[in-house]
Write a structure and sequence with these properties.
The protein is α/β, with parallel strands linked by helices. It has one domain: Glutaredoxin, CATH 3.40.30. It has four helices and five strands. It comes from Flavobacterium pokkalii.
């Protein structure tokens, strides 16, 4: 899966892991935003810092994460996380339609507001 496939839409790149409490607590908010805005052009790519495939897949199912999920199951050695210089999770990068990072690490109402703003353009 390529990030380039997402360009032309607003995209959230969401770094998380099944063992990350703050990540899991934010997931219901992200699920609600995805349900509301996916049909309007929002795309999300989940990048997991898990090492255990079964725990990762179990968390995806339990939290109802229906968007694309990727992981090399290398934990903090995840190459995509290194590319984005992720040092703590949850970490979110909001990309505009051209693929430019326009916001980072927004949660809850702030994330919703930014997505609404970007999709209104």
């Amino acid at each position: 899966m390529s990030l380039k496939q997402s360009l032309g839409k607003v995209t959230i790149v969401d770094f998380w892991a099944s063992w990350c409490g703050p990540c899991r607590r934010e997931n219901p908010n992200v699920v609600a935003i995805y349900k509301e805005f996916h049909s309007k052009g929002l795309n999300i790519i989940g990048v997991s810092l898990d090492q255990d495939a079964s725990k990762w897949k179990e968390a995806i199912a339990k939290d109802k994460l229906t968007w694309n999920q990727v992981s090399n199951l290398k934990g903090w050695e995840e190459p995509i996380a290194a590319q984005y210089k992720v040092e703590a999770i949850p970490a979110t990068f909001i990309l505009d339609a051209s693929g430019k990072v326009v916001a980072r690490d927004l949660r809850g109402a702030e994330l919703r507001t930014k997505i609404e703003e970007l999709l209104a353009k």
